[in-house]
Write a structure and sequence with these properties.
heterodimer; A: alpha+beta; OB fold (Dihydrolipoamide Acetyltransferase, E2P); 2 domains; 5-stranded mixed beta barrel; B: alpha+beta; 6-stranded antiparallel β-sheet; 4-stranded antiparallel β-sheet; 62% helix; 12% strand
């Protein structure tokens, strides 16, 4: 096999890989991109329960409670303009506190956000970027944390 | 005083690095031996200066000198000594200092052990190494000076983030950085080779041990991080496809590809420009990893407070390094003469496929990690890409790679017979079939994924063992003769076997955990019982105990199975009063078959505590597998032929290259 043909084979294989990877990535994006909304956006944007989304904001003061089953936590996430009720079954992260910025992932079902995951950060001075931006958008940003 | 000495040493290192970047390069172009040799002295001096700076900072941490701002922010007088020391690199400034320390250490190693390198190649590599060092030293001195003083000195420090006060995480950053920075050697040698205009088997033989060492350290670093996330975060998971995790995984994928393609350059004098390109990309991804983690542009579960200005600086450095080297590559790559020819079906062909699959997989991770950033910058739309994306892209690309792994080592160099290779793998095929059937019949969920996953692991084990049996001609010659052959095999063959078997063990663990995990969440008070699969967990009591710099709250739980006692678990919650931060310490009972994992959330006597329990089947195999991969790397490194600076190949059929100029 001449060097030229070998190179052609490799280039062909490479293109084949790239093609299949692109196809994989595109189909995966279609189903698996998780969009982020602030509580205000959530109100205006009518999102169905079949779509997995992320919401973020601060945990509203005095909103944290538990349902009767003892393991479902309820609280409200706010961008200080609007707030959304959230239900989450399981242990909350260590840095989950009222007033703390968090991100929750899950589905919005009948006005309640059913979270399957709640993320708080490893560092208490850290504010998730999305949360900071959501607060800036709602005009409530006081410049704490990063940025 | 000592802190100022450290600061001064760091400034001195900057000027030494500048000289080391310029003088040997000029020397190499003029063929002036004295100037070229200057690089070696400069590399030693640079290492000495940075070592002094690092020692000064460590000293400040050990004696708790809170007049140094960095110590004040990341240490506390009551912190155990181990965490005072790990605090040195557990923060931005200190970790950057550690970065350049390792960079200089590698430069020093080239200067000290590179006697057999052609003088001009060594001079150029040292010069490139110093350019990187110069960039990072400027960065440290301008934006992240670890020696800044506070006046008046505070009475006590703010303490290291409690999550980082953990033995696993104490050694995670050093290992990770050894890996990241280790790839700088491959990069420097690649640039030097481009400048020289020649890449030959000798070049690959110098680059391979560095790449292997970096790969081994990076593997260890990633696994330590993953292990830490597993037992410390209390989420029961070990990999979240989080951007920060991906940032270290991409250089690993590229580095693994580089490791394999360098073999082709060494043994067959082929795939040269590709290998050079991979060396550049691997280091570029390492730089990007540093950038992503340090800049905070990505939302990550592992993000710590960061400063965007610093991110911009690293981004600038990265663009300069990557842009410059790619431009050089475009100019010089056509000069590289291609060597040995091979057919598509051959060992070389297999390794090309390995490289293509690994780099494509790396590209999908790259897209998944950076697409949210791209979308945010262009449309302002915020998205995140989670595990389902990677399951749909990364996993399908890994499957053919792993299947190929079983066959590849059996293919002959140059031209091979695929049918013949497959016939030799009959035993592996039988083993795979048995395992698949066994899994299918025993699995209640009947998941195809589990069958495929375990089948692949069995196939790899079968392939590796077949190759080994053939090498020592097991059952074809007497057992004694086979044994003699086995002891005669090179360290790198054993290293390869061990690493590949480790990968199979890792897959076993990952697949078992993914498909067969069981979890239970309950709100419990002392006296309550939680059922988890076949186990009954009884919550006996809650008790308190003070630690050195925290208050601990223990739950005592008795685990039984069909009435028989299994173990007693003590999951723990700690409150670190200085940072007012709680941490969860999960309790894990490990057997070879599974981890029994229990963590306790916040709670009190009246409302009860949130208890989260998991059975994580086969997870210990992941850690064993990872350890085997690291050991494989080490065994391979111990190979005499690969010993750093080894002048001549002792055995083997590759053409003897001409060393020197």
């Amino acid at each position: 096999m001449t060097p030229k043909r070998r190179r052609l084979t490799i280039v062909f294989l490479g293109l084949l890989m790239l093609g299949s990877a692109t196809a994989l990535v595109l189909t995966a994006f279609e189903d698996n991109l998780v969009f982020f909304y602030s509580p205000t956006e959530l109100e205006t944007k009518n999102i169905g329960p079949d779509r997995r989304i992320r919401i973020g904001g601060l945990v509203e003061e005095e909103s944290v409670g538990k349902q009767a089953d003892g393991v479902t936590n309820t609280f409200r996430v706010t961008d200080l303009t609007k707030s959304v009720p959230v239900a989450f079954k399981g242990a909350l992260p260590d840095l989950f506190r009222e007033g703390q910025g968090i991100i929750a992932e899950g589905r919005f079902v009948k006005g309640v956000f059913q979270a399957s995951e709640v993320l708080a950060k490893h560092d208490e001075t850290y504010m998730p970027r999305e949360v900071a931006d959501a607060l800036k958008k709602s005009g409530q940003w006081k410049g704490q944390g990063t940025e | 005083m000592i802190a100022e000495l450290g600061h001064f040493a760091l400034i001195a290192a900057l000027f030494v690095a500048l000289a080391q970047a310029v003088v040997p390069m000029v020397g190499a172009n003029r063929r002036d031996l004295a100037l070229m040799d200057f690089g070696r002295y400069a590399a030693s001096a640079q290492f000495l200066c940075i070592a002094i700076a690092f020692a000064a900072l460590t000293h400040a941490y050990i004696i708790s000198d809170f007049s140094v701002a960095n110590v004040f922010q990341n240490s506390h007088s009551k912190q155990p000594l181990l965490y005072k020391i790990s605090g040195v690199w557990g923060n931005h400034e200190g970790s950057m200092l550690f970065w350049v320390l390792i960079l200089a250490l590698f430069g020093f190693a080239v200067a000290a052990f590179g006697n057999n390198l052609p003088a001009s190649l060594r001079a150029r590599a040292l010069s490139v190494q110093a350019m990187i060092g110069f960039g990072f030293l400027v960065f440290i001195l301008l934006t992240s000076n670890p020696f800044e003083r506070l006046d008046p000195a505070p009475l006590d420090g703010r303490e290291l983030n409690p999550l980082l006060q953990d033995p696993g995480l104490a050694f995670h950053p050093p290992m990770l950085y050894l890996g990241y920075v280790g790839f700088s050697m491959a990069f420097s040698f690649a640039i030097a080779a481009l400048l020289e205009g020649r890449v030959d088997p000798a070049w690959a033989r110098w680059v391979r041990p560095w790449t292997l060492a970096a790969w081994t350290a990076l593997t260890g670093g990633i696994v330590l991080g993953s292990w830490w996330a597993y037992y410390e975060l209390g989420w029961g998971g070990w990999w979240f496809w989080d951007p920060v995790e991906n940032a270290s995984f991409m250089p690993w994928l590229a580095g693994t590809a580089l490791l394999h393609s360098a073999i082709v350059v060494e043994k067959r004098d082929s795939l040269k420009s590709w290998t050079i390109l991979l060396a550049i990309l691997t280091f570029a991804l390492s730089l990007m990893g540093t950038f992503l983690v340090r800049s905070g542009v990505l939302t990550s579960v592992h993000a710590f407070a960061v400063d965007p200005e610093r991110g911009l600086f690293i981004l600038g450095l990265m663009i300069l390094a990557v842009g410059g080297s790619l431009a050089l590559f475009a100019m010089r790559a056509p000069v590289l003469k291609s060597g040995g020819l091979f057919r598509p079906i051959s060992r070389e062909g297999g390794l090309v496929l390995n490289n293509l699959l690994l780099s494509t997989a790396c590209a999908t991770v790259f897209i998944g990690t950076l697409y949210p950033l791209f979308l945010d910058a262009t449309t302002g739309q915020k998205v995140s890409v989670g595990p389902p994306f990677y399951n749909a892209t990364f996993v399908p690309l890994m499957i053919p790679l792993l299947v190929l792994l079983g066959v590849g080592p059996l293919l002959a160099w140059k031209r091979a017979d695929i049918l013949q290779a497959l016939t030799r793998l009959w035993a592996a095929a039988v083993l795979t079939a048995i395992v698949c059937l066994f899994i299918w019949s025993g699995d209640d969920g009947k998941s195809v994924g589990a069958v495929v996953g375990f089948g692949i692991a069995a196939w790899i084990v079968g392939g590796v063992l077949t190759e080994y049996a053939e090498r020592i001609r097991l059952f074809r010659i007497s057992i004694g003769a086979s044994l003699r052959r086995a002891t005669g095999l090179s360290g790198s063959s054993y290293g390869m076997m061990l690493a590949h078997l480790g990968l199979a063990a890792f897959i076993t663990g990952a697949v078992g955990d993914t498909f067969w995990g069981v979890e239970a969440v309950a709100n419990a008070r002392p006296g309550d019982k939680i059922t988890l699969g076949p186990y009954d967990i009884t919550f006996d009591k809650m008790s308190r105990e003070p630690g050195p710099n925290y208050e601990a709250e223990f739950a005592t739980m008795t685990v039984t199975r069909d009435g028989e006692p299994v173990t007693r678990l003590r999951p723990e919650r700690r409150i670190y009063p200085v940072q007012r931060m709680p941490t969860t310490e999960a309790a894990i009972h490990t057997t070879l078959a599974r981890d029994l994992y229990v963590s306790v959330g916040e709670g009190n006597q009246a409302d009860g505590w949130a208890v989260h329990a998991w059975i994580n089947p086969l997870v210990p195999w992941m850690w064993i597998g990872a350890l085997m991969m690291v050991c494989g790397g080490l065994v391979s490194l111990s190979d005499r032929r690969l010993r750093v600076g080894a002048p001549k190949r002792i055995s083997g059929a590759a053409p003897q290259p001409v060393g020197g100029d």
